[in-house]
Amino acid sequence: MRFIGRSLFGLFLIALTFGLLATSVGLVYSSFQERNAKQSSKRPQKERVFSAHVIKAMASAIQPEIEAFGEIQSKRTLDIRIPVGGTIVYLSPNFVEGGKVTKDEVLVITDATDSEDKVTLAKADLNDANDDLIEATNALELANDDLNAAIKQSDLRNQALARKKGLIDKGVVSEASLESAELSAASAEQSVLSKRKTILQAQSRLSQSKGTVIRRELAFANAERKLKNTQVKAEFDGTLSNVSLVSGGIVNNNERVGLLVDPSSLEVKFRISATQFNRLIDDSGNLQTIPTFVKLDVFGTEISASGFIERSSATVGTGLTGRLLISNLSQGNVSSFRSGDFVTVSLKEPILDNVIELPSNALSGGNRILTLSDEDRLQEIEVTVLRRKKNNVIIDASNVDGKEIVTNRTP
Prior knowledge:
- The protein is of the alpha+beta class.
- Among the domains are: 54-64 and 352-406, conserved putative lor/sdh protein from methanococcus maripaludis s2 fold (Beta Barrel), CATH 2.40.420.20; 76-113 and 230-261, CATH 2.40.50.100; 116-226, Arfaptin homology (AH) domain/BAR domain (Substrate Binding Domain Of Dnak, Chain:A, Domain 2, Up-down Bundle).
- It is 37% helix and 30% strand.
- It has four helices and 23 strands.
- The strands form six sheets. The protein has a six-stranded antiparallel barrel.
- Helix 2 packs antiparallel against helix 3 (175-228).
- The radius of gyration is 55 Å and the shape is elongated.
């Protein structure tokens, strides 16, 4: 039994030895195969090919457009106000919403009874002041005549006194007669002084009369102006709007009763960015005369007009940005527009040379585009973006002219 057990154990060891040898040979053989496989040349993998939409870049001159939203307004707009309040006694048949009026047409008349009475009283006061002025003028002339007469009388009495003084030495004239002549001469001089005082009083009265006349003339002119203001006339040809007045109604002083608009002189105001505004000025900083085009879509029907930029606002405005521009409307269907219309405004910028217009999808976030090389391989190039408009961009063509550009980076 012991012999059989040892024999079986020996057979087991022999089998295990041969198994380990076979495993070792297999590992060595597989390692040689792997090394030979790595050393042998592999077939190159085929490159992936994508289809893309491309266009050939051709440099050209492009005139960019700026689009903005604007509002139509009239160059001449006038508030209609009643200077002198009261009862409305006349109302023009054209004084209605949308009514067309002509220059100097009487629109409204208020009750002028009080104004007429004030004119009459002011006229009477002015006449009284003129009469006082005439009287003061005549009084001054009489005072001058009295002064001249008093001066002559004083001269005569002084001459008489001188003669008596010459005769008293000869004993012809008595002392009493000489004294009487001296008193007469002194009295004449006193009369001259009194007449001079009267002239000063007459001159003062004349000055007061002139001042009174001026005040009465101003009062009369003011009364006439108030009487004239009872009639409200149209300052120019136009159309009425915001009318809020009926015949027989009562209005206050300076009350607003309507708006007069000149529909023949319309303009459009619109706001653009400061960067866009900077492109519209010349080297001297002056705003160029840029053509503008205005469109209004009315239920599928497009109304259009055109004009030129005239001016820009001097201030930005509280809470606003950009620049406010005003353009006239001189050509096209201008009569179809109305003040207050909200329109689309487009204007032409100065022409850009040597540029290309591409779809926005051709541009990456870093201002790069994809071009095709001579081997049909994609190549990324950085470009300079000059303008952006809707779904397109305008770039500088200096480094891409003649190349094929991928129009859509993301399929």
